[in-house]
């Protein structure tokens, strides 16, 4: 065998070994590392390009595209979205839907409802059942088994209405279970489950395994004095966490707050990531930037994604 041919064979073997090592490194990530698409751009193709090519992600979370909420896309837009996902080899962690982000009938009108960003969606209570049916169909089209929801705009005193909220959530979870889907309740400060402690109470009240938590430590951190990790997280049933949003926050005077990049702020993400890995968590870890200190949504998301990956590295998690 000639020297040149031997060198060529050795080079090919080395390249193959390198490729296998890279693939093993990618597979070693215990989470479905993702980003919410519209935190990058309303242009879905561009958002997927950034997620796949620049962020090296295999997963993406869908909320709105082309300034249209995921739940209001036309058939043509759905088809185009699926083609774009295939183009960039991206899988969908979940549908970040607006389900139950509305006022609860019979309860006082929430002070949150008139001015909150609904991410291009505006469905009243009477439309929620039809919305859920549509989301179930969309989940199948987009190849995901998870639908995110809320539990109505926050009331000053939710106690008299908690049973009805839980009934509605439980009913929706039962419908999802029939389709082998998971309903994810996000803890959202503008809704009636905002902190980890409030989430625990709802999970205990609705034991259906198809009803899980979209754990958002950044949202929990907006409550004065709240410690999302380790305090709130340690109390949560780990087998009921089905998705995780990643962002950070800082507290301002007079109980106010503002968003921060992932690696800056109240939430101890290094500790939280280590705990998720320790507890066998294997679902979505999705960047929900919100912070706009980078000037634009895309620039801010790029900065925050770097912070997320730096934090994972500090936690010695290979993602």
Automatic annotation (TrEMBL):
Residues 58-309 form the Xylose isomerase-like TIM barrel domain. Residues 1-23 form the signal peptide. The keyword Signal applies. It comes from the Bacteria. Keywords: Signal. InterPro entries: IolE/XylAMocC-like, TAT_signal, Xyl_isomerase-like_sf, Xyl_isomerase-like_TIM-brl. It holds the Pfam family AP_endonuc_2. This is Xylose isomerase-like TIM barrel domain-containing protein. It comes from Granulicella sibirica.
């Amino acid at each position: 065998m000639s020297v040149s041919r031997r060198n060529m064979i050795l080079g090919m073997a080395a390249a193959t070994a390198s490729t296998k090592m890279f693939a093993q490194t990618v597979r070693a990530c215990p989470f479905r590392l993702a980003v919410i698409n519209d935190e990058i751009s309303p242009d879905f193709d561009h958002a997927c390009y950034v997620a796949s090519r620049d962020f090296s992600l295999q997963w993406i979370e869908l909320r709105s595209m082309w300034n249209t909420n995921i739940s209001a896309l036309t058939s043509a837009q759905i088809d185009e979205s699926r083609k774009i996902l295939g183009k960039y080899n991206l899988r969908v962690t979940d549908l970040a839907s607006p389900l139950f982000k509305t006022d609860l009938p019979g309860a006082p009108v929430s002070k949150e409802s008139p001015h909150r960003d609904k991410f291009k969606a505006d469905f009243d209570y009477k439309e929620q059942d039809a919305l859920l049916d549509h989301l179930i169909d969309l989940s199948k089209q987009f190849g995901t088994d998870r639908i995110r929801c809320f539990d109505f705009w926050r009331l000053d005193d939710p106690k008299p209405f908690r049973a009805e909220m839980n009934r509605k959530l439980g009913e929706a979870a039962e419908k999802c279970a029939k389709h082998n889907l998971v309903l994810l309740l996000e803890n959202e400060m503008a809704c009636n489950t905002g902190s980890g402690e409030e989430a625990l109470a709802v999970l205990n009240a609705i034991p259906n395994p198809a009803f899980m938590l979209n754990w958002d430590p950044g949202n929990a951190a907006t409550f004065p004095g709240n410690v999302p990790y380790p305090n709130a997280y340690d109390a949560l049933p780990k087998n009921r966490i089905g998705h995780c949003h990643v962002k950070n926050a800082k507290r301002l005077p007079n109980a106010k707050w503002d968003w921060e990049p992932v690696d800056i702020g109240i939430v101890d993400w290094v500790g939280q990531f280590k705990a998720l890995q320790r507890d066998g968590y294997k679902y979505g870890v999705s960047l929900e930037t919100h912070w706009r200190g980078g000037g634009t949504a895309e620039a801010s998301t790029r900065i925050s994604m770097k912070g997320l990956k730096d934090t994972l590295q500090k936690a010695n998690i290979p993602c």
